[in-house]
Amino acid sequence: MSEAKTLEYTADYVVVGAGASCLAFVDTLINESAATVIIVDNRHKPGGHWVDAYSFVTLHQPSFFYGVNSKELSQGKIDHCGLNQGLNELATGAEVQAYFDNVMREILLPSGRVRYFPMCEYVGEGRVKHLISGEEFRVHYTRKLVDSTYYKTAIPATHTPQFARDASLTMVPPNALPQILNQHTHGFSHFTLLGGGKTAIDTCLWLLQHQVNPDNITWYMPRDAWFIDRKNTQPTSAFFNDTIGAQARQMEAIAASDSITDLFLKLESAEVLLRLDPEVLPQMFHGATISRLELEQIRRVKNIVRKGRIIKLGADEIVFTQGTETSAANSLYIDCTASAITNLKIEPVFQDDIIKIQMVRAYQPTFSASFIAHLELCYDNNDKKNQLSKVVPLPNTLEDWVEMTYRNMMNQFFWSKEPGLKAWMLKQRLDGFSQLVNNVRFYQLDKLKILNRMRKAAKPAIIKLKAYREGITLSSQQ
Ligand SMILES: Cc1cc2nc3c(=O)[nH]c(=O)nc-3n(C[C@H](O)[C@H](O)[C@H](O)COP(=O)(O)OP(=O)(O)OC[C@H]3O[C@@H](n4cnc5c(N)ncnc54)[C@H](O)[C@@H]3O)c2cc1C
Fold it and tell me: Mean pLDDT across the stretch 201-221?
């Protein structure tokens, strides 16, 4: 009897991962070319980490410039209630999931040029394993293999905590809170948040919103972070003074600073960045974006333990890298320690016949992926493509912020020298900011004044960032 033949599939591009980066890349690829694509993803639905997100997650930046280029995510609304009130709407996790599902079902698959293999692990060398049947098949590309999994986004629901825990303590990811706490019998009178990032902030806000007394919350904060004021990320014209004004203020702050610490203090005075506690100087920057109303709320929590990273959650004692604490009786421990992005290394985006999707504009993963697809189609050689897609590293430390901002500004400068790219960006939904600047008219003197301030401060800011870069070690180089 002959052995069953391994199935083989071929397309111009094979993309590993079906998260936001993949979908933004493929959307641009199929809209700007006749390419065919195979997408392989180990989750059961498109959307990557959003598929397993906690139910109360939202985008932390406006929906306006998130998703894929050819389909709106935003409904063009300003929030009138809640802690984002007065600002452009933020899609909820459920909306983001539904959106990515629609992108697959209504745009990519109906194109007839995309094949999607969910529940399938790419194991390398063209081999793919179906996670339910265990059967293997092969995928081949005639042009490129695209790795959209490079950042290895981790979330509490799926990661393994990096500390030991006594089995007598109850620890859950934020996903479990609504189900556990809607039982009369849950028995928890205290809540302990583990982690200092955006997930911990969201969870804190959720507890406060659901009538938990702030005195019944303890927050284990390994490092304090600087936050971006969400008001400064609004891509609509009513917010020009906030958004583009913040860019001008940022450049002026950089130019006027005399050390990295001084720079961050100046960014705070210029209302570009926020922090939880005015008495504690943050040493971390992960790009978390919050509104001032959210900041006001989280400041109600006063039991903040700053003793470094957790080593062990013991039955009687919590051990940190810099001290210990007594375990809280009847506390529910909520694990918010997953680092959204676990791979901080950077590599060239275009490598022979492989594309490694990474960020080429700070905080904008979907714009970056769409931009990379456009470069792939419009330029012939990898050297030129890499010149135009210098990776903007993901920040962890304050020094990383310097590198990120420097590279971001340099990319913007090089793109502005390419007329084709400039024209392309102006038509992209995902690039709200170029349009905001381009729409300024000669009679809008206030706006022109802001643009002039920005232009004037750009060169001194770049010189200052260059000077800071010379003396620093970056997380991405470790
Ligand atoms: C809570 C939260 C809120 C956020 N809010 C915003 C925001 O407001 N704005 C913003 O711009 N960004 C935001 N981000 C950043 C966010 O990470 C990106 O927007 C984006 O969703 C990342 O998508 P990705 O495709 O790069 O990665 P992922 O979502 O991780 O997708 C990669 C996919 O590849 C799969 N995969 C990995 N290895 C393999 C393999 N070998 N075979 C098959 N499949 C594989 C993974 O399972 C996953 O499905 C947020 C992130 C988090 C965690």
Answer: 97
> How many CA atoms within 13 Å lie on the side-chain side of 118?
12
Spacing, Cα 359 to ligand 1 middle (Å) = 12
- Find all residues with CB under 8 Å of 231, minimum gap 6, and list them: 87, 239, 242, 291, 292
**Identity of residue 317:** E
Residue nearest (by alpha carbon) to ligand 1 atom 15 = 365
Give CA–CA dist 377/27, Å, rounded.
13
Query: Pocket residues for ligand 1 (CB within 6 Å)?
Result: 16-22, 40-43, 48-50, 53, 57, 59-61, 66, 121-122, 148-149, 151, 153, 155, 340, 363-365
Domains and CATH numbers, the chain: 8-153+342-387 (3.50.50.60), 155-224+302-337 (3.50.50.60), 234-274+398-478 (no CATH)
**Residue ID of nearest Cα to ligand 1 atom 44:** 41
Whether this model's pTM surpasses 0.85? yes
- In 3D space, the residue among 461, 373, 379 whose CA is nearest the CA of residue 412 turns out to be 461
Give distance in angstroms: CA of 454 to centre of ligand 1. Answer: 33
| Helix then strand then coil, % of the chain, to nearest 5 | 40, 20, 40
Q: 35, 13 in Cβ contact below 8 A?
A: yes
Using the mean position of ligand 1's atoms as its centre, give its distance from the Cα of residue 22 in Å: 9
- Pocket-testing residue among 14, 60, 87, ligand 1, by greatest number of atoms within 8 A of Cβ: 60
pLDDT tens by residue, 355-378: 999 999 998 999 999 999 999 999
Spatial distance between the Cα atoms of 145 and 40, rounded to a whole number of angstroms: 11
Instruction: Render pLDDT for 431-451 as a digit per residue (tens, 0 to 9).
Output: 988 889 999 999 999 999 999
Helical packing angle, 365-378 and 20-32, nearest 10°: 30
